[in-house]
Amino acid sequence: MLNYLGLPAAASSHAGDIDHMLVLVHWLMLVLFVGWGTFFLFVLVRFRRGANPHASYTGAKGKFAKSTEVVVAIVEIILLVGYAIPAWAMRVQTYPAESDAVVIRVTGEQFAWNVHYPGPDGKFGRTSIKLVSADNPLGLDKTDPASKDDITTINQLNIPVDRPILIHLSTKDVIHSFGLYEMRVKQDAIPGMDIPVWFVPTTTTDDMRKKLGKADFDYEITCSQLCGLGHFRMRGFVTVQTQADFDKWLADQEKELRAGN
User: Fold this and answer.
1) Is the dihedral of CA 86, 90, 91, 93 positive or negative?
2) CB 3.0–4.6 Å: which of 87, 224, 227, 258 could bond 177 by disulfide?
């Protein structure tokens, strides 16, 4: 619906609110662009050298300019207080209960996204920086009973549709920025911090492919913060599935995990 603004397709429950605010901001910018452009043309003609051979040092006088500035300021305050701050507060002050949400840890590093699911027991296994290696990028402690059923993937995030997704975001090295554009999610990952991010996906990957008419479409995880020479390849994928397909995917991952042990 908002393709004329160049926005990606909306696929989360809060995407409409974000898009509505963007539309209002763009309308304000259009009014300012037209207004200032018109004023600039007026000034070029009105104060041309031929009509004003001698400079006036008293300056322009009148209430129109000041009134216009006041109106613009009021509109900006309305956008900030009426839309931006409430939308931000809704995302950072109230989180879904972990018992109702799919809880996932996502850890950025140069140059990949590590995804960590707690497994059937619902408990994340212990991790340690001392155990980090090429084969164990999250430093998962295999001696911890809670870690034996944990599922880990690299650059692949599977989530069910129409359920709250609560992601605990962190990074192993520099600042990264976790971006899911169709979900209208973008959050910096800061070293030493665990930052919660949540959203509710509303459209499966298959349904979005049909909607867009693109058989090769995939939701992507992007890094929106320049994080080094390999920043361009720090790209992951999100598969939004029905609950049944997501449960099957988890079961298949668990079977592979047991077979590997």
Assistant:
1) positive
2) 224
Q: Which amino acid, 84? A: A
The rounded distance, in Å, linking the Cα atoms of 10 and 199 is 12
Q: How far apart are CA 67 and CA 112, in angstroms?
A: 52
Sheet arrangement for strand 176-180? 156-160, 235-241, 219-223, 176-180, 185-189
CA distance 64 to 253: 67
Burial of residue 196 (CB within 10 Å: 0-12, 13-18, 19+) is: middle
Residues 6+ apart with CB under 8 A from 153: 114, 115
Number of H helices, E strands in the chain: 5, 10
pTM above 0.85, yes or no: no
The Cα–Cα gap between 215 and 60 comes to: 60
Token pair in block for residue 183: 């979900």
Residues linked to residue 156 through DSSP beta bridges, in sequence order = 237
Strand partners, 70: none
Contacts of 185 (CB under 8 A, 6+ apart): 12, 178, 179, 197, 199
Q: Which two tokens stand for residue 111?
A: 């140059």
pLDDT tens-digit map of 215-247? 999 999 999 999 999 999 999 999 999 999 999
